[in-house]
Records
---
Amino acid sequence: MKRLYAAAWLATGLLTSTGVTALTPLSPHLTPQSHQELTARLTELGFPQVGHNSVVIALTQALGFKAESKTYDYHERHAHLPRVQVHVTPDSAGCAVVALQANYQLPQPGSVQLQGLYCLSGMGQWQARQQVLTPAP
C-alpha cells in the first residue's frame, strides 16, 4: 500500500514539476447556452428531469464531430429512462439538421420531438441555430 501512495505522489510531483496538465477526453457537446435552452424547454414541456441527460447524450452522440448523415438510437433498459431516436442530415452550410424523438416505455407525460439546426462552433462543440421542441403526438 505504501508503494501505491509513493507512486501516486511521485507521478503528481513529476506532472506538477514539468508543467504537464491532465488531459480530458474530448466528446461532442453543446455550447452552454444551447444546453441550457434545451433543458429549460424540456422542463417547460413536462419532460421528466431524469430523462434530460438521455436527450442530451443522444443528441450529441448523433451530432458527433462533423456534420454527416447519421441515425442514432439511445435506449437504456431502465423503464424510467426514455428511448431517444435521432436522425442527422448535413445541410449546405456544413451544419447539421436534426430530427429527434424521445418517448418513454411506460405511459407518462412528456414525450417530445425536436427539430433543430446545429453548427460547429469549436472542436466537437455544437451551437443551436434553431431548436424547436414540441410535445410528441
---
Amino acid sequence: MKKIIKQMKVLAIAFLIALGLSACSNKASAENTPPPTSSAAPDDSMINKESEKPLENLVPDSGEVFSLTEEEQALYDEFRENKDMNLFKDVNPISIAKVNIMFGVNGEWESEYAMFYKEDGMETSLEEYKQMYEKREKESAPGEVQSYANWYFPFIDEGEFKADGNNGVIIFHQVPVEGEEDDEVNFHMVKDANGIWWVRENPLYWEAE
C-alpha cells in the first residue's frame, strides 16, 4: 500500500497542477494521496483516440462530494458570462474559492483563470493555461477531475479563513486516508484595493506559515 501511495505522488501533483488548483497547498506529505483502484470497464467515450487504450478513472471513491450551494451556483453562472470580479464584492472568500475550484472541475479554464490575482507577477499566461487544459482533456477519464475534488475539497466549507492584511488563506482538511495522517490543505487568496478576494496562483504544495 505504501508503494502505491508513493507512486500516486507524481501523478496527483502533475494532475492537480494541470487542473489549475495551484492556489491550494498540502501541508502533509504527498504520501497521503489516496491509492488508485480499478474502475468499471469504460464506455466508448473513454477511449483515447491517439492510443486507442481505454482511459480509466483510477481515483477511488472518497465517499464525499464537492459541490456548490444554490447561491454559489448563481455566482458561478453569472461570472462565467461576464468575468467581472466585482460580482464577488462582500462575498465570503470560501464561496469565492469554491466557485473557482468548480470552474476547474468543469473545465471552464477561462473563467478559472480570470479569478487568479495577476497584479504581483503571475507567471502562467492565458495561452499556457489553455495548453494545460488541452493536455488534461487528452489524458483524463470522464469524472476523474470531480473525483479528485471529492478527495481534496468536500470539507472546505468547514475550513477557517485567516487574513493578514491583503493576504488570506483558507485552512481545511481533505478526506482522510485510512492508515495515514489527516491532510491539512491551504488555499491562498489575495485582496485587491476594492476589498475583493482573488485566488492566488502559487506552488501547489506550499507549506503555510
---
Amino acid sequence: MIPNQANNLLISTAKMTKNRIFNPIKYKNWKIISKEDLKLENTDRQLLDALQKDGRTTIGDLAERVSLSQSPCWRRVRHLEESGVIAGYHARLDRKLLGYGVLGFVHLAMHDHTPDMAAAFEREVVALPQVLACHNLSGRYDYQLEVVAQDLELFAEFVRGNIRGLPGVREISTSFSLKEVKRSIALPVQ
C-alpha cells in the first residue's frame, strides 16, 4: 500500500502479482479506489467468512454455501482477490510443534521520530523472520514487536543481538505470553 493512503485500496486493471507488492514502475495501470467505492454484498461477505475459516474450500463447496452456481461464485472470489480484499491464502502453523516455545512482546522507544529513521527501522525489522508482527503505537512506546524463539535464552540473544542494533532504538522492554487465549487472523465481515 502507498503511504498516507490508508483509506484507499490498490486495484489493478491488469493481473495482480502473487505477493501483492505495489511497484509503480512495473504496474503503471494500477488505479486507486476508495473503500467507499468497493461495495460488498451479503454474498461477498459470506464468501469472505467461509474462506477465512477454510481457505482450501473448493469453489463447489463455496457456491453451495452461498446458494450460487460455480461460475458466478468463482467470478466473485476472483473479484475479491483482484480488488485486494482477499490478500492471500495461508497455512496456519503450530509454533510449539515447530519448536518455538516462547512468544514474546518487545516494546521499543525510539531516539527520534523522523520519517527517515522510522523507514530505516521498519525496513530492517521486516527482514527478521522471528518477528511475527510489528506495530507502530501511540503512548509510551513507539513500536511493539511480536517475536518467537525456541527458548528464553535464544529470545534474550535475539533481542540483544538483533533488536538492540536496529536503527533508532533507545529503550527496550520485554514481556512474555504465559498463555495464548485467542489467536485469529479472521476479520469480522458481517
